[in-house]
Design brief:
This protein is an alpha/beta fold and 129 residues long. It has four helices and five strands. The protein has one domain (2-116): 3-Layer(aba) Sandwich (Rossmann fold). The longest helix has 14 residues, at 103-116. It is globular and about 35 Å long. The two termini are 17 Å apart. Bound molecules: flavin mononucleotide. Flavin mononucleotide binds at residues 6-12, 40-45, 68-70, 73, 77-80, 99.
Amino acid sequence: MIVYASRTGNVRYVTQTLHLPNIEMNEVQQLTTPFLLFTYTDGLGDIPVLVERFMKQHYKLCRGVIVSGNSNFGHQVFGQAGDKLAALYNIPLVCKLDLRGTAKDYAAIQAFYYEHIQEGQHEAVFEIK
Ligand SMILES: Cc1cc2nc3c(=O)[nH]c(=O)nc-3n(C[C@H](O)[C@H](O)[C@H](O)COP(=O)(O)O)c2cc1C
């Protein structure tokens, strides 16, 4: 499962392009299987507040982070929410996308997903509000 947060639609667009099981963060009620986090970057290289809150609760099941940013913000803070989450929770930064990213990014995400997430996961066990 990919759990994603999207404010202006880029992350949502990419997630829906990947053809992988996914759920929007604010719809997750209970989480019992490993997941991949997909977030945007806020402020100046900040982790979105809702993502911070979610991860405090669910970090143990998180197997990696994908981040979208905008490289126009400059190298220092481009996609930095992903770097921060990877460091905070000691998880791999799977991919950093510039806005909606590229086909190469999508392939890298799918490869990681099939190797680390789908294995052993038989069905979604979410309860959706
Ligand atoms: C208020 C605001 C602050 C942002 N700050 C950053 C930033 O510091 N670094 C970065 O790489 N992108 C930054 N972005 C760009 C977004 O992370 C990027 O557009 C992302 O694709 C948004 O994903 P979403 O459309 O799914 O919400 C910012 C965007 C907004 C609106």
